[in-house]
Amino acid sequence: MIVIEARPRSTAEDHLRAVVSHDADGAIIVDHSGAVRFLNSAAERLLNRHGAELHGQIFGFPLVVGERAEVEVLRPDGEFAVAEMRVLSIVWEGQDALLITLRDVTFERQAEAALREAEAFSIAILNSLTSEIVVLDKQGKIVAVNEAWIQFGRENGITDLASISVGADYFAACAAAGPGTGGPEALQGLKAVLSGELAEFTYEYPCPGPQGMRWFALRAVPLRGSRQGLVVAHNDITDQRRAAQIAAEAEMLREQVRQMERELVSVEAISRPDEMVRSLTAPLRQRAPELFSQGLERYGALLEEALYSRVHRTPAPSRALRELGEWFGSIWAAPRDLIEVHLQAMRDRSQHNTPKKLQAYFEEGRLLLLELMGHLASYYRSMAAGELSFRDSE
Amino acid sequence: MSKIVLHLYIAGQTPRAERAISTLRRMIEQELAGHECELTIIDVLADPQQAENQKILATPTLIKSSPPPYRRVIGDLSSVTDLLNVLNLPPQS
Fold first, then answer.
1. Per-residue pLDDT for A389 more than 70?
2. Are residues A286 and A330 in the same domain?
3. What is the pLDDT of residue A179?
4. Which of A219, A222, A380, B49 registers the highest number of CB atoms within 10 A of its CB?
5. Which 3-state string (H, E, C) describes chain A?
6. Considering CB atoms only, which of A59, A66, A78 is closest to B74?
């Protein structure tokens, strides 16, 4: 309690009255029943009421836990201000009293609320994005993440979500990832963007997951605004990668087939009469759909068998494959027909299998097809040799 | 034993108001468990006339109208101990 009684009472009270009267903060003096004994002009403005109107009225006993409390000050028009309330025990007109000071903090609270709203809006935008987003400060510490990023962590079995959330050290995690993981390369790129050496940095990296290997593209750009930092987005590009890989494999296959076809065409041309070559130029699927289906079925069975052999490490179906090659030769199948059969078998399996199993089909199918081509070539070669020796004997 | 009648005036669902409500509920359930209590919460934004009738100048304000003595408290209503002390509760039988 502050007792201002060192001087004669009237002088001390006059002094106190002068101080509170000119205080820029609202000052209300209440007795122990909570009734108003005095209020300054700042308080009148804050409450938007006349002092005379409030004199003797019960304001209330002020309760403050710690140094201050916040209250809403109500005005007659229904509006209100937010005020920080402090309380001091004093002696007023010879009686114990309480000096309540009210500092108008409405503007500060509105600014804080606007800031919170803006932050919530930014987070809502981040959460609306499907890419996994991490925002870093200039030291590489995480300052914001979106829900997609946290969800990604959960799906990958990270139980300690704090290690990938706000406050975690992203740079340290990259450095700790070690060589071969892409971590050090990513760290170097991120630092280059941070220093302004690069305008942006993109990096593709593999990431093992529950459904097999996945690929991600990391893209880092500088954080725009007054704060220095980085916005790092991760996108799952496994599908694009797989498509590109399949396209590259297909191109490689086509090139091998083209080479084999060139060889076969000459062998094939001399292995059968000219009129037969002309009649059999149409693709197998068109000229003999039933034979095509039959070939597809036999090829599919061998593909399943090859996959089984791969998993259970049993011998591959080589004899059956040679027989199938000879069978295709016997019906005058061309290399393109074998490709058609192979692609149809892959398409049939692409709908209901996991990416991992599809990859296995693709790898086994490619080997199977090449071997089948070899058998077909051998068949035509031996045919050609027979035909040549026949012609020679003539 | 007379009923304890409390009126709490708040200005919208602010964290301050929620803290005050939770303290009062805790106080009633634990410290005043053996007493008949009635707590009414008035949102001055929804019912400004009632605030004006009661000459409420700030929120949160808690009024104890029964049993006597009448008490009106303003400010940080988060301490059960302080509230019991200021409100003269529980009533001495």
1. no
2. yes
3. 73
4. A380
5. CCCCCCCCHHHHHHHHHHHHHCCCCEEEEECCCCEEEEECHHHHHHHCCCHHHHCCCECCEEECCCCCEEEEEECCCCCEEEEEEEEEEEEECCEEEEEEEEEECHHHHHHHHHHHHHHHHHHHHHHHCCCEEEEEECCCEEEEECHHHHHHHHHCCCCCHHHHCCCCEHHHHHHHCCCCCCHHHHHHHHHHHHCCCCCCEEEEEEEEECCEEEEEEEEEEECCCCCCEEEEEEEECHHHHHHHHHHHHHHHHHHHHHHHHHHHHHHHHHHCCHHHHHHCCCCHHHHCHHHHHHHHHHHHHHHHHHHHHHHHCCCCCHHHHHHHHHHHHHCCCCHHHHHHHHHHHHHHHHCCCCHHHHHHHHHHHHHHHHHHHHHHHHHHHHHHHHHHHHHHHC
6. A59
